[in-house]
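Sample entry (374 residues):
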Amino acid sequence: MPTPSAQTLTERLEAIHSLLTDKLPRLARIAVALYDGNTDMLHTLAHSSRGDDPLSHYGIALSEVPSLRELLAQGGPRIANDIANDYAHGSEHSQRIIGQGYRSSYTAVLTHRNAVLGFVFFNSYEPGLFDAQAVPVVECAARLVALTIGEDLDATRILMGAIVALGKVARVRDPETGEHLERMARFSREIALRLAEPWGLTDEFVENVFLYAPLHDIGKLAMPDAILFKPKELSAEEWRVMRQHPGRGCEIVQIMLDNAAAPFPHIDLLTNIIRHHHECYDGSGYPDALAGADIPVEARIVAVADSFDALTSLRPYKARWSNERALAWMKTQAGSRFDPECVVALERSIGSIARIQAAIRDPDAPPGDATEGG
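Predicted structure, serialized as tokens:
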């Protein structure tokens, strides 16, 4: 089993890889890609390559990878003992694998509690590795990988479920739609992917930003309804109360952690998002008036994603801004309110963001709903 010190998923994949060394010394790589059924996108998550990986910071629509689409339909696994020949004219995904020098592969669909998580890939630089003796070994390893990832996701879902339940018990309505939270989480992932290489972010970090971004405003559960739903501008005293919600959100998470039967992964990342997503790049934000690089990376990313979706969403008090208008306004705020590099990453991701908007629409938004400013 992976050692207790293996905290990140990458470390746990490397631990599983090490377990296979005696049986499969020619195994070069184990990698995981998660599948998002809402957008039909595959996103790389982690790998044990111990060096350069051909698919880091990579996303592709499943519809563009026919072999994996077929595998998902059939349930798998798929064995290719001569990749260069079998997939010489395959997808970009296959070409990257071949280009890295891998020559054989075993691919399985990852499932947990009857839900599809994604795919796990085992690769070797030598052809013919996955023969009758090797297959039972990698089948066992694939189940262990699925369990490892499933446990992490279960912990996150338990935390999210508890927060949702808390909201219902307290009879507090979130003024933002579920669709808003789904979109801004995916926007956060797209921005993080653009920044991954220059900022040295791992795919695991990117995926965790996506998972935890929707929880950024949980502190609003502790805000009085009279303030949370006030139709007019808040008074100075009401703003003082409202600005307590990041700290109250961290308190809510800590109460849940104190009463949890098992540890939750990546809690520092979650609390950074909750506490610091209202910090401003110039230090004028709250609650801690952090500035520039002192603001955690994850909070800077979520702040841009959340603001962009708020601007481009239909609300009772405003029409939906066009992407062009929202982006133009956010560029005026780069360096003061927002991290300039995050805004650039948003702009470079606008094609992917438009596809997310088309796939995840507010239920009351009619086709072609009116926008302001074009």
